[in-house]
Amino acid sequence: MKAIVYTQHGLPASDPKSLFETDLPQPTPGPRDLLVKIRAIAVNPVDTKVRAGAPTDQPRILGWDAVGVVDAIGSEVSLFQPGDEVYYAGSIARPGSYAEYGLVDERIAAKKPRTLADDAAAALPLTSLTAWELLFDRLGVEEGGGDGDALLIVGAAGGVGSILTQLAAKLTRLRVIGTASRPETAQWIRDLGAHDVIDHTQPLLDGLRAIGVPQVRYVASLTHTGSHYPQLIEALAPQGKLGVIDDPETLDVMPLKRKAISFHWELMFTRALFETPDMVRQHEILTNVARLVDEGTLRTTLGEHLGQINAENLRRAHTLIESGRSRGKIVLEGF
């Protein structure tokens, strides 16, 4: 099968050797696996981080967002049949979706939204899982809850932020405050349902005070946590909750003690990586997301379509993500 891989980590995305096309054997499904013929993929920051920093001794396939058709199933699969259209984010411990075929455990896949084309659906899985788990599983907000409280989303215009903004605005009663630094990204966040937008290049506390919010109950820090950390602690109310998804070099938790602020990591790969007893929850989350999309409650966060799935376009996608100026999700479609 055709696959786009890397063999040498740390190369700039513009280097033709950073991602290149090769032929690899088509994988064979294990007992709980779906063999999926991939039709569309999305590119995420984790793709660029692995390419840049993870050594490999053999060609490695990146990519953990995919839409495709089930071609074959393992002996113990019960949730799907060949021919089903599915979407999923995969496991970081397995080969990814930059290939014509991929394997995914049925417990972390779901039938794709009926009302979306492949490219629009491919934009959803990884960010939807991250946002849903962060809001409901980690921060502990209840659906329909949060009345009188506020959620500050730092980096609300990115892939995860674009979904989290919608989930919080549509499924809770929280006052949703997103951060953005450009007029176009600020408008994007408002269009997704944010009640307020403040500029994260300016002091966050000043921005919150300007909209009459001295403190917030919840913070979802999606980017640049290290640089905002002291301000986030000050902005959080006593007994507030701080959720983080990015990779700060280090964080000192001691400043959280005085306010009894709880700290919550979110990594959507954890359930699949450790095959936790509740691994099937990701199938359930993606099924709920598909239903909400088909009902018109949620919308795709597709930002840019860069054409076919090939090495040149994937290098372009990685370059754009590394620039820090992408909006929404970057999608490629077809081989």
Automatic annotation (TrEMBL):
> Would I find Nucleotide-binding among this entry's keywords?
no
Q: Which keywords accompany this UniProt record?
A: Metal-binding, NADP, Oxidoreductase, Zinc
A Pfam family found in this protein is ADH_zinc_N_2
Under Gene3D superfamilies, the record lists:
Medium-chain alcohol dehydrogenases, catalytic domain, NAD(P)-binding Rossmann-like Domain
Q: Which family does it belong to?
A: Belongs to the zinc-containing alcohol dehydrogenase family. Quinone oxidoreductase subfamily.
Q: Domain Enoyl reductase (ER): where?
A: 14-332
Q: Which GO terms describe its molecular function?
A: oxidoreductase activity; zinc ion binding
Name of the featured protein: Zinc-type alcohol dehydrogenase-like protein
* SMART domains membership: PKS_ER
